[in-house]
Automatic annotation (TrEMBL):
The keyword Isomerase applies. Pfam families: Asp_Glu_race. Belongs to the aspartate/glutamate racemases family. It comes from Gluconacetobacter azotocaptans. It comes from the Bacteria. This is Aspartate/glutamate racemase family protein. PANTHER family: ASPARTATE-GLUTAMATE RACEMASE FAMILY (PTHR21198:SF7), GLUTAMATE RACEMASE (PTHR21198). SUPFAM superfamilies: Aspartate/glutamate racemase. Keywords: Isomerase. The lineage of its organism: Bacteria, Pseudomonadati, Pseudomonadota, Alphaproteobacteria, Acetobacterales. GO terms for molecular function: amino-acid racemase activity.
Length: 231
């Protein structure tokens, strides 16, 4: 079994789910008392969020590279960033380490394409929905047609993530607002919805969407289990 290197704490709410899903996945594959070999570097998310808000992405990149190198030195056979937004610097992190980076967008897009879907709606932080690092990979590498909510809906999703979900607050009114946003994306032609923030799965499930939801947290964790058990 290969050792998985996780860069977490962004936020710990979803990092805890990663840890559970990866260990459950290994136990399901191997049975008995098996669990995952993994290392996690967990950030103080307040420090990361302050850099994001201040548009200090170079400083955030330096921290991510340092974390990746730490888990690599600890024996990780590959590295995963346990958040969608911080894949903004995924290429820089990959260039700085000698092991593979398992990009969160790839297993998500591969599952969507395997299911025969092409046009998808993307929910996430404003950074993920508005900047090209994520949408561009989905489109350029995987051929997906990516729709994002309008400006007001993007603001709502961003607020729910940062003011509620990363603090463990799950509010019915916010779930309803997200359902309505999903509905508007479906009206525009989205055949599926990507939960492109690792906290969104805490609030939303299949019952909240008329089209399939693709949970990046679960798909990323599943891919990590597969990669760790490959010969």
């Amino acid at each position: 079994m290969k050792t998985i290197g996780l860069i977490g704490g962004m936020s710990w709410e979803s990092s805890a789910v990663y840890y559970r899903l990866i260990n459950e996945g290994v136990r399901q594959r191997l049975g008995g008392l098996h669990s995952a070999r993994c290392l996690m570097w967990s950030f103080d998310f307040a420090e990361i969020e302050a850099l994001q808000r201040a548009d200090r992405w170079d400083d955030a990149t330096a921290l991510m590279i340092d974390a990746a190198r730490r888990v690599e030195r600890g024996g990780a056979a590959f590295v995963m960033i346990c958040t969608n937004t911080m894949h903004r610097m995924a290429d820089d992190v990959q260039d700085a380490i000698g092991v593979s980076l398992l990009h969160i967008a790839d297993p998500t897009a591969e599952r969507i394409r395997a299911d025969g879907l092409h046009r998808v709606g993307l929910l996430g932080t404003a950074f993920t929905m508005e900047q090209d690092f994520y949408k561009g990979r989905l489109a350029g590498r995987h051929g997906l047609d990516v729709l994002v909510p309008d400006a007001g809906d993007r603001q709502t999703i961003h607020r729910v993530i940062f003011q509620e979900l990363v603090q463990g607050r799950l509010l019915p009114d916010s779930r309803q607002a997200c359902r309505e946003i999903i509905g508007r994306l479906v009206e525009r032609g989205a055949g599926a919805i990507i939960l492109g923030c690792t906290e969104l799965m805490l609030l939303l499930g299949p019952q909240d969407s008329p089209v399939p939801l693709y949970d990046t947290t679960a798909l990323h964790a599943h891919a990590a289990v597969t990669m760790s058990l490959e010969k």
